[in-house]
Design brief:
Number of helices: 7
Bound molecules: 6-phosphogluconic acid
Helix content: 25-40%
C-alpha cells in the first residue's frame, strides 16, 4: 500500500499477515528508536496506547535487550477509574510489560485519572509539557476512527496538551487524553490496527474522512502497522 499525504502528514501504510507480525514489527521499530535516542540523548520517551491491540507488543518488549534505566513511559489516554481497576490502561500496561522490566518507577508517568478528568488533565498537562517531543507515540484506532480518547464529534481547546473527556462513547464515560498536538509531537508515530473490526475506520481514514485519527501527525510521518484482516485482504 503506497504512502499517502493526508493534510500535511505523510502516512505510510504497512500490511502484515497477522497480529503477531504486527507486534514483532512494532517492537523492532520501538527498539531501533530506543537505541538511537539513548545513544544521542541518554533517554527514550515512549507514549503507550491503551486498548487491547498493543498488549502483544508490550508482552514482546519484555524480553528486549535495552538499557531500561533510560526509558520514560507516558500514557496517551486513561480511563477515570480507581488506581487498581483492571480496566485502566495503566494496569494493562503493568500486567503485560512494566511489572516485568527494570524501568525505574520514577520514570513511569501514569495519568492520575482517579482524581477525575479535570484535575488529572491539569496535572498531566505539566508532565507532557516537560516531556515533549516524545521519541515514539503508540496509538490504536477505534471502529469509529477514534484514537486515544479523541472521539468523533467531540471538540477540545487546541491550546491544551491534555484534555478532560466526558460522555465518551466507549466506557467509561469520563477519560483523560493527550491532545492531537501532544500525540503528534514525536519523532515517530506508530498506529497499530488489527482485526476486521478496524476496516471501516481504516477506509474512512484513507478516504480523507474527518475521523480523529486523521488529525494525528506533524513533522514526523505516521506509520500504520495493520494486519490483513484490518484492511480486508485475505491470503
Ligand atoms: C482506550 C484506548 C482506545 C483504543 C481503541 C482501540 O483507552 O480504550 O486508548 O483509543 O486504542 O479503542 O481499542 P482496541 O485496541 O481494544 O481495539
Amino acid at each position: 500500500m503506497k504512502n499517502q499525504q493526508i493534510k500535511d502528514t505523510i502516512t505510510r501504510w504497512h500490511i502484515f499477515d497477522d497480529p503477531d507480525a504486527v507486534a514483532a514489527e512494532a517492537v523492532q521499530r520501538i527498539l531501533n528508536s530506543a537505541s538511537q535516542a539513548i545513544s544521542e540523548r541518554g533517554v527514550f520517551r515512549l507514549v503507550l496506547s491503551g486498548g487491547h491491540t498493543p498488549e502483544a507488543t508490550y508482552r514482546l518488549l519484555v524480553g528486549a535487550d535495552t538499557d531500561w534505566s533510560c526509558w520514560e513511559i507516558y500514557f496517551g489516554d486513561e480511563r477515570c477509574l480507581p488506581v487498581e481497576d483492571p480496566d485502566r490502561n495503566s494496569i494493562m500496561a503493568d500486567n503485560t510489560f512494566l511489572d516485568s522490566v527494570a524501568i525505574p518507577a520514577a520514570n513511569i508517568y501514569p495519568m492520575p485519572s482517579e482524581k477525575g478528568a479535570e484535575a488529572a488533565a491539569k496535572e498531566y498537562e505539566a508532565v507532557v509539557k516537560a516531556a515533549i517531543p516524545f521519541d515514539v507515540v503508540l496509538l490504536g484506532i477505534g471502529e469509529d476512527g477514534h484514537t486515544g480518547s479523541l472521539f468523533p464529534g467531540q471538540k477540545h481547546p487546541t491550546d491544551e496538551l491534555v484534555h478532560p473527556v466526558h460522555n465518551s462513547p466507549k466506557p467509561p464515560l469520563d477519560r483523560v487524553t493527550m491532545s492531537v498536538r501532544a500525540l503528534s509531537d514525536a519523532q515517530e508515530v506508530l498506529v497499530l490496527a488489527t482485526g476486521e473490526g478496524k476496516q471501516d475506520a481504516i477506509k474512512a481514514w484513507k478516504a480523507g474522512k474527518p475521523v480523529p485519527i486523521s488529525e494525528i501527525g506533524g513533522p514526523a510521518p505516521v506509520d500504520v502497522l495493520m494486519d490483513k484482516a484490518a484492511v480486508g485482504e485475505s491470503d
